[in-house]
Inverse folding.
């Protein structure tokens, strides 16, 4: 879509991919759009300068979201409850320390980068996984019921818990919940 005229300029065919896609994650620095195909466990890479698919590769079961950090694409896989790492130069899996993936909590839904660390919300696990990129391990941070959405505002991570309509505030410097904001008609709580 041309953002000036709001007119569709090109449709990019995904004919070689079966299964439905979810909302893409994008990094503008590399002109690449990474589109997750949840039902067939793959990702399409679209070159946004040419508006064409340049690569397809497999990932874990049920990919829902990705974030790119340098040459590595970290992908949340909702059915295998893990994060896979792909080298975007070769589109090969990246296996640091011999690990094929980083285990996280139950039903991970998205991934964000805050203060150099990765955070995954585990909707059915009532937790956030804080991933140490140097060791490729995850620490569990307990939050409230169904952490469904995350918003980063360095150094904080705000987690919307839709099961009880609360917001957990995590300080990325300590990986601790510093406050839980209950649903309220008055918004008087301060951090």
């Amino acid at each position: 879509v041309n953002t000036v005229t709001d007119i569709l300029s090109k449709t990019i065919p995904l004919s070689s991919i079966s299964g439905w896609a979810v909302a893409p994650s994008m990094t503008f620095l590399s002109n690449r759009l990474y589109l997750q195909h949840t039902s067939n466990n793959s990702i399409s890479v679209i070159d946004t300068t040419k508006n064409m698919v340049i690569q397809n590769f497999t990932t874990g079961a049920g990919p829902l979201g990705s974030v790119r950090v340098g040459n590595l694409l970290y992908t949340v896989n909702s059915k295998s409850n893990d994060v896979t790492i792909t080298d975007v130069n070769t589109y090969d899996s990246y296996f640091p320390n011999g690990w094929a993936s980083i285990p996280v909590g139950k039903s991970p839904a998205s991934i964000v980068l805050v203060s150099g660390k990765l955070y995954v919300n585990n909707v059915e696990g009532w937790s956030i996984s804080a991933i140490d990129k140097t060791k490729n391990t995850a620490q569990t941070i307990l939050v409230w019921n169904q952490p469904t959405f995350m918003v980063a505002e360095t150094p904080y991570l705000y987690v919307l818990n839709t099961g009880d309509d609360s917001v957990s505030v995590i300080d990325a410097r300590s990986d601790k919940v510093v406050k839980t904001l209950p649903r309220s008609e008055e918004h008087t709580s301060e951090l």
